Amino acid sequence: MTGEMTAGLKTRTPAGALAPAIEFVEVSKVYDGKIAVARIDHSFDVGRVHALMGKNGSGKSTLVKILSGAVQPTLGHVKINGNRTELATPRDAFAAGIITVHQELSLVPSLSVAENIYLGRMPKKRFLGSSVVDWQGVNSRAAQLLREMGLDSDPRKPVSELSVGQQQIIEIAKAMSFEPKILLLDEPTSALASREVEQLFNLIRRLRERGVTMVYITHRMNELFEIADTCTVIRDGHYIGGVEMSETSPAQIIEMMFGAIAKAKRPPRKEIARSKPVLSVRDLSREGAFENISFDLYPGEILGFAGLLGSGRTEILKSIFGADPFDRGTIEFEGRAIASPTPRSMKRLGLGYTPENRKEAGLVQMLSSHDNLCLASLSRIASNGVITKPHEEPFVRQQITDLAIKVPDAMLPVSSLSGGNQQKIVIGNWLNTSPKVMFFDEPSRGVDVRARQQIFEIIWKQAAQGLACVFVSSELEELLEVADRIVILKGGRQVGTADPVTTDLTALYRLCMEGADH
User: Fold this and answer.
1) Which 3 state secondary structure label does DSSP give 165?
2) Distance (Å, whole) CA 89 – CA 70
3) What CA–CA distance (Å, rounded) separates 213 from 76?
C-alpha cells in the first residue's frame, strides 16, 4: 500500500446524494511545529459504523478531538450533514449532536450510576417552594435507559463498586442518554469480555438502524468485521485509504496501517519442569468474588486465566498480591506459607503485578518515564538510603533498551507516550525488581498490533529466562497464542483447564461460557 492509495470509499458525495454526516475538508493540525494530521480530505456517510484505524501516534485521536471540539484544526474545516460547522468547544460538538465515549473513564467513583449518567442535568422538582433533585426521577430514568441497553444494573449503586468493564458500560450508557446523532467510540471494548462486547454490539446495531452515525476506534481487528461497515486508515498523520469491510481482509488493513509487518512468532514451547512450584494457591476464596481457587505455577511457565467479565480473574490476582483481602485458603511462595499478604511483602518476596488499568493503577501520569520505571525498585536502587538520578539511570536505560521503549526524553511526563510504550513502562518498572513471578493483567489493552506483538515477545523472553507468569486477557485468541496452560474461570469458580496446543478458539469460548471441564 502507498500513502496515495484509496480503496472502496469516496471522499466526496456525488451530486444529489445525501450529504455526509461528517466531512473533513483539507484538515491539518500542527502542534509546536509537528504535524499531527496532514490535509485529511475524507467523509463518513450517515447511519453507518465507520472504523478509524491507525497505529498509536497515527493521528486518529487528533481527528476525534477535532470532532469533539477539544482541539481546533490549524487548517481546513469540518462539515456536519453538509454544513460547515465550527467545533470550537465541546459544547459546540454537543449542539451538533456529537458525543464522544473516551477510552479513559470520566466517571466520578463516589457517585451512583444514575448520578454519573445525569451529572449536571439532574431532573428537578418543587418542594416547599424550592427546586430540589428528583431522586426518584433520576433513578427511574437511569433504570429505563439501562434496560433499553439490555443492562441489569442497579442505578443506585456507587460506581466505585463496579469493575473497570462495568464502568465502561456505564460510560457508554451516559453517552446514550444524550441521544446522539454522531457517536465517537474510542476503544469502547478495551475493558469488556466477550459477553459485554456482544451486548455493546447489539446496541450499536440498534443505533445504526435509527440512523446514528458512528466513528469506531479499536485495536481489535476481529471486531471490525463484526460491527463496522467501513474502515478508514491513517498513518503518520496522512490519509492512507478507505475500504468497505465486505471487500477487504485483516491482512490488507494491517498493511495499510503499518506497511509490511512480520507477525510475532512464539518460540517453540518447552517442557515445563513441574517438580517444584514457585507459587501454590489452595482453595482461595473471597465472598462475592471467587471461591475455591487452586493452582500451581512453575518457573518459566505462562499460566493463562480465561473467563468472561465477572469471572474473578483480576480479583484473584489482587488477593494473591495483597491488594485485596481473602476469606480463606492458603498461598505459598517458594514453599513458604503467606498468611496475610501485602503488596510490599509480596514484592519483597519476588512478585510483580502489572494492573489492568495502567493509567490509574500502573503509572503516575504527572511523573516522567524515568521516575515511573523506578517506582517499584526504589529500595533496590537506594544506596545507604539515598536515591539519586545517577543511581536510577542504569535501571532506566536497561529497560528502555531491553523493552524497545520509544521515548524521546525519559524526563518527559509518561502521559506523553503512546499506550503501547506506557504499557512497556509499567512492565519495565516491575522487571527492575528482578521478580520471580509476574502477574500480567490485560497487558495488551488499548495498544496497537505492533505494540501487542512486542509485549508478547517480552513475556516469552522473560519466561524463557525462568520468570513464572500469570497472563490475563479478555482476548481468548491471545491466551491461546501466549499461554502454556489455561485455567478456566466462570462466575468466580474454577471450572476447567485447557491446553492451548489442542484447544481451538471455539472450544475455549464454550468452556468460558458453559464451564465444561476440558
Assistant:
1) helix
2) 6
3) 22
Closest by CA to 117, choosing from 89, 96, 145, is 145
- Please list, in sequence order, all residues whose beta carbon lies within 8 angstroms of the beta carbon of residue 268, skipping any fewer than 6 positions away: none
How many domains does one find in the chain?
A: 4
In a domain, 26, yes or no: yes
Which residue range forms the structural domain that includes residue 500? Answer: 277-350+436-442+465-518
> Is the separation of the CB atoms in 430 and 358 below 8 Å?
no
Return the bridge partners of 52, or none: 232
Residues 498 and 518 sit within 8 Å (Cβ to Cβ): yes
Residue 366 makes CB contacts below 8 A (sequence gap 6+) with 413, 415
pLDDT (0 to 100) of residue 15: 40
Residue 375 CB neighbour total at 10 angstroms: 17
Tell me how far apart the terminal alpha carbons of the chain are, to the nearest angstrom: 43
CATH of residue 20's domain is: 3.40.50.300
| Tens of pLDDT, residues 360-412 | 888 998 999 999 999 998 888 877 777 888 889 999 999 999 998 988 899 99
Same structural domain, 416 and 387:
yes
> Whole-angstrom Cα distance, residue 437 to residue 134?
51
pLDDT digits (tens, 9 = 90+) for 435-486: 999 999 999 887 777 888 889 999 999 999 999 999 999 888 889 999 999 9
Asked whether residue 247 falls in the same domain as residue 394, the answer is no
Residues 84 and 15 in one domain: yes
